[in-house]
Amino acid sequence: MEQIDSTDLRILSALQHNAKITNRELAAQVHLSQSSCLTRVRKLEQAKIITAYHARLDLNKLCRFVKCLVTVSISGQTKEDSAAFQAHVESTPEILECYTVSGAFDFLLKVVAPDMKSYLEVTDELIQAVDSQITLNTHVVMEEVKASREYPLGSLL
């Protein structure tokens, strides 16, 4: 793990909140000169602590869609099955997130699709991706109560 100081922490927190902030604004916010601030940001990028900059979209304002959380269990899972499953997940744009988890199932997915028919096509292809039997449990998201992409750095570090 990389060692970061309190100034780096303030930079990361500010960029998490608003990645579009100018270097001038960021430097003023974290009490650094613009050149020192930019140097620190570049070091955080080179260390792969900052991996990308993104725009957060409000999909509700763009289109109709269905979002599902899906638990996946693979019976008699082999390394080959797991690799095939993960490769399929990585190549499927509708699967936004995939986690290997402990407990009653093997994977947890977040899937978005234009409608349930499209969602079923995604899951049918997922089932066909491996030779072993796959059990899926779908939980349709009715309302998003909280969706933060900002890590609570102050309490984690």
Topology readout:
Blueprint: H1 6-17, H2 23-30, H3 34-46, E1 66-74, H4 79-90, E2 95-100, E3 107-113, H5 116-128, E4 134-140, H6 153-156
Antiparallel strand pairs: 1-3, 1-4, 2-3
Helix pairs in contact: 1-2, 2-3
Structure description:
39% of the residues lie in helices and 18% in strands. With 157 residues, the protein is of the alpha+beta class. It has two domains: 6-46, Winged helix-like DNA-binding domain superfamily/Winged helix DNA-binding domain (Arc Repressor Mutant, subunit A); 59-140, Alpha-Beta Plaits, CATH 3.30.70. It has a four-stranded antiparallel beta sheet with strand order 2-3-1-4, with helices on one face. Helix 1 (6-17) packs across helix 2 and helix 2 (23-30) crosses helix 3 (34-46). The mean pLDDT is 94.
List key phrases describing it.
157 residues; alpha+beta; Arc Repressor Mutant, subunit A; Alpha-Beta Plaits; 6 helices; 4 strands; 39% helix
How can the largest sheet be summarized?
4 strands, antiparallel
Seen as an oligomer or otherwise, the chain set is single chain
The mean pLDDT is 94
The third-level CATH topology of the largest domain is Alpha-Beta Plaits
CATH class term of the largest domain: Alpha Beta
Determine the strand fraction and express it as a percent band: 15-25%
Q: What is the helix fraction of residues, given as a range? A: 25-40%
Count of domain modules: 2
Give the strand line-up of the largest sheet.
2-3-1-4
Treating each run of at least 4 consecutive H or I residues as one helix, how many helices?
A: 6
**What is the name of the CATH superfamily of the largest domain?**
Lrp/AsnC effector binding domain/regulation of amino acid metabolism (RAM) domain
List SSEs in N-to-C order: HHHEHEEHEH
